[in-house]
Write a structure and sequence with these properties.
The chain is mainly α. It has one domain. The chain contains three helices and no strands. The chain has helices at residues 13-20, 28-34, 42-55. The longest helix is centred in the last third of the chain and has 14 residues, at 42-55. The two termini are 16 Å apart.
Length: 59
């Protein structure tokens, strides 16, 4: 819709693709071998990502 009235879209297609690509990773091996524990669970990670995108004007 933004393009119809000459405005630049607030979210570019590349940005949407970047954050919605389907990636699945099993981290059990890295946790076992290196003792790695993720800093964020999925919900917290997405929340911080959205906040950062808003701060940068991407949302």
């Amino acid at each position: 819709m933004a393009r119809l009235d000459g405005r630049q879209p607030s979210i570019m297609r590349a940005t949407i693709d970047k954050y919605t690509e389907d990636v699945a990773v099993d981290n059990r091996r890295i946790q076992k071998e290196l003792g790695f524990r993720p800093k964020y669970d999925l919900a917290a990670g997405w929340s911080e990502t959205v906040q950062e995108m808003q701060r940068m004007g991407e949302l």
